[in-house]
Amino acid sequence: MISLSIFVECQNKDEAIVISTELKKKIEPFIINYELQEIIPYRKIDGWFNMGINLETSNILEVESAERILETMSNKWDWTKGWSTALATERMDGLVFFNEKVKFIDCWFEDFALNETK
Q1: pLDDT at site 116
Q2: Fewest C-beta in 10 Å: which of 4, 11, 75, 96?
Q3: In terms of residue numbers, what domain contains 40?
Q4: Do 6 and 34 contact (CB within 8 A), yes or no?
Q5: Cα Rg for the chain, rounded, in angstroms?
Q6: Looking at the predicted structure, is the pLDDT value of residue 113 above 70?
Q7: Looking at residue 63, which CATH number applies to its domain?
Q8: pLDDT tens for residues 63-105?
């Protein structure tokens, strides 16, 4: 399973749902289940919402297949040591998200098979 925390700058929850639907369409070829868990106002920044999303794939991911999924959301990612979490933020030079209202994505991989060459 993949857990996403996506921070978006928008007027209301309905606008956040539209962004979630756009993401779902982009990643459908890679997943077998998409579940929008919650959309809550982000307490630190007015006008931002945090969307919690769970994704399920048909098999355990390797780095290469995980990166194909991530590329549908953003063109740049920072992996944490251990390859279990990837982060993308608008502060990264040259970063482009799938939607201009997205400001930050935290992606956690529950099941992950590391390739020895990485």
Answers
A1: 42
A2: 11
A3: 2-113
A4: no
A5: 14
A6: no
A7: 3.30.70
A8: 888 999 999 999 999 998 777 899 999 999 999 999 999 999 9
